[in-house]
């Protein structure tokens, strides 16, 4: 592949990743508008733990927020981390996101305190953070390693704060489970470096 073709390929991937994440976030905002217009009828799609009927809300809960302030707090990190993760391919990104959402939602259903209602994209955000943090090291890609270091420097403090059990009204369980699911996704969907290229000086 020529450098021009490689540049076009990278540009196409970036364009596709950007469109996907803009559409994803637009959907979240549309859902919150509907939620507010219907008197917060969509809040019921959050996960209440250990209720069998709530298992159907494991996936929808990742798309519902409790007010615009909640959504605003999640919008930028989801856009940035999602975009960076999607640069390696939309199919891979969707598999990673699906694994994070499922594991996080099921974990919240299992271990969250009783009589709570958990929803929001933060579990996915923590998962994407974990995925990006380790995937470059696993795949021995210098750019991926640099990306992991940069997001750790930018969001590492917020991530640690979000894991603190002392925060009121915050599902630290969902954050922790999302982070662990993202690390697991990095292992599950890692790409092995080409050994022949690895030997090239």
Protein topology:
Layout: H1 3-37, H2 68-86, H3 90-111, H4 122-139, H5 142-162, H6 172-188, H7 195-198
Helix pairs in contact: 1-2, 2-4, 3-4, 3-6, 4-5, 4-6
Q: Can you describe this structure?
A:
It is a single chain. By secondary structure, the chain is an all-alpha fold. It has a single domain (3-194), classed as Up-down Bundle (Rhomboid-like fold). The chain is built from seven helices and no strands. Helix 1 packs antiparallel against helix 2 and helix 3 packs antiparallel against helix 6. The two termini are 19 Å apart. The relative contact order is 0.13.
CATH architecture call: Up-down Bundle
Percentage of β-strand residues: under 5%
Please give the count of helices: 7
Distance between the termini: 19 Å
Rg calc: 18 Å
According to CATH, the fold-level topology is Rhomboid-like fold
CATH superfamily: Rhomboid-like
Number of domains: 1
What's the overall average pLDDT, rounded? 92
> Topology as H/E string?
HHHHHHH
Short description:
The protein is mainly α and 201 residues long. The chain is 68% helix and 0% strand. Helix 1 runs antiparallel to helix 2, helix 3 packs across helix 4 and helix 4 packs parallel to helix 6.
Provide tags for this entry.
201 residues; mainly alpha; Rhomboid-like fold; 7 helices; 68% helix; globular; disordered C terminus
């Amino acid at each position: 592949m020529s450098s021009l073709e490689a540049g076009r390929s990278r540009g196409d991937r970036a364009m596709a990743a950007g469109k996907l994440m803009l559409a994803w976030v637009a959907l979240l905002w549309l859902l919150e508008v509907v939620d507010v217009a219907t008197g917060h009828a969509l809040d019921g799609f959050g996960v209440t733990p250990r209720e069998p009927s709530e298992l159907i809300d494991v996936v929808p809960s990742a798309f519902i927020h409790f007010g615009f302030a909640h959504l605003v707090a999640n919008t930028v990190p989801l856009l940035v981390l999602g975009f960076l993760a999607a640069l390696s391919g939309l199919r891979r990104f969707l598999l990673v996101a699906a694994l994070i959402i499922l594991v996080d939602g099921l974990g919240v259903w299992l271990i969250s305190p009783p009589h709570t209602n958990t929803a929001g994209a933060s579990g996915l955000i923590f998962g994407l953070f974990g995925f990006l943090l380790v995937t470059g090291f696993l795949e021995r890609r210098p750019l991926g390693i640099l990306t992991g270091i940069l997001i750790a420097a930018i969001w590492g403090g917020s991530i640690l704060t979000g894991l603190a059990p002392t925060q009121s009204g915050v599902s630290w369980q969902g954050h922790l489970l999302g982070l662990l699911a993202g690390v697991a996704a990095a292992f599950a969907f890692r790409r092995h470096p080409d050994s022949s290229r690895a030997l090239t000086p």
